[in-house]
Amino acid sequence: MYKNERIDLACAFRWTVRLDMHEGVANHFSLAVNEEGTQFLMNPNLRHFSLIRASEILVLDANDSSTMEQPDAPDPTAWGLHASIHRNCPHARCVMHLHPVYSTVLASLADSNLPPIDQNTAIFYKRYVIDEEYGGMAFEKEGERCAELFNDPKIKVMIMGNHGVLVIGSNVADTFNRLYYFERAAETYIKALWTGQPLRFLSDEIAEKTAVQWEKYPDYTETHLAELKAILDEEEASYRL
């Protein structure tokens, strides 16, 4: 069941490792598979991203209170965060949460804003929210609080202060592409700060124009994921199993 969706998600897990954005056996991706968004796929508990296969991915129901009592229960923080978002934010079809280095450095700054200083940072112009109220690990109460920050459908990224980053999208291709570019954008900004030199900021008008152009760029996200799968098919085809 959900063969293609599982394969896409497994590809995203494997490629996250190749980008060195994984962290031990932590972090989690999920993908809604019903119209309401409450049933979703998610990685199995404590499974390293480099080993995840499509057939191993869990099918969960955000409204099933017995989930954590089952033998194949997901990680408690994964359940707390992802189930809360899928239960309360039906537009968040895919949810990816990581602690990649540059995004987490950004989330650790007193000012965690990402200013538009180049084409990639402009992608996120007025399309992210900063969570300023970190309350500990993302068990269910914390997950419910985070879900409330996605009330505006325009917001696609949560910079989780003192924590990491959470990205949402319409499918795996859309969300993984956004995650990839957010980490790239954060890296550009952090390294620009390292120089100690004045930054060249885009105007509000050009930043918004560029963000819209990215959103309308034809077939880009789907092609990006398709190419990643093509590489894995040659080098690491076990992700499809």
Characterize the structure shown.
- The protein has one domain: 3-Layer(aba) Sandwich (L-fuculose-1-phosphate Aldolase), CATH 3.40.225.
- It contains 8 helices and 7 strands, in the order H-E-E-E-H-E-H-H-E-H-E-E-H-H-H.
- The chain has helices spanning 3-18, 76-88, 101-108, 119-122, 140-147, 172-194, 204-215, 220-235; strands spanning 28-32, 39-42, 58-61, 94-98, 128-131, 157-160, 164-169.
- Helix 5 links the parallel strand 5 and strand 6.
- The longest helix is centred in the C-terminal third of the chain and has 23 residues, at 172-194.
- 42% of the residues are buried.
Strand content: 5-15%
What is the class in the CATH system? Alpha Beta
Q: Alpha-carbon distance between the termini?
A: 13 Å
| Largest pleated sheet | 7 strands, mixed
Taken in chain order, the helices and strands follow as HEEEHEHHEHEEHHH
Q: CATH topology, what is it called?
A: L-fuculose-1-phosphate Aldolase
Number of domains: 1
Q: Shape, please?
A: globular
Order of strands, widest sheet: 3-2-1-4-7-6-5
Task: Tell me the structural class.
Answer: alpha+beta
Q: Helical region count?
A: 8
Assign the CATH superfamily: Class II aldolase/adducin N-terminal domain
- Give the helix level as a range of percent: 40-55%
| Mean pLDDT across all amino acids | 96
pLDDT < 50 runs, ≥5 residues: none
Q: Could you say what the CATH architecture is?
A: 3-Layer(aba) Sandwich
Number of strands: 7
Give me the Rg, rounded: 17 Å
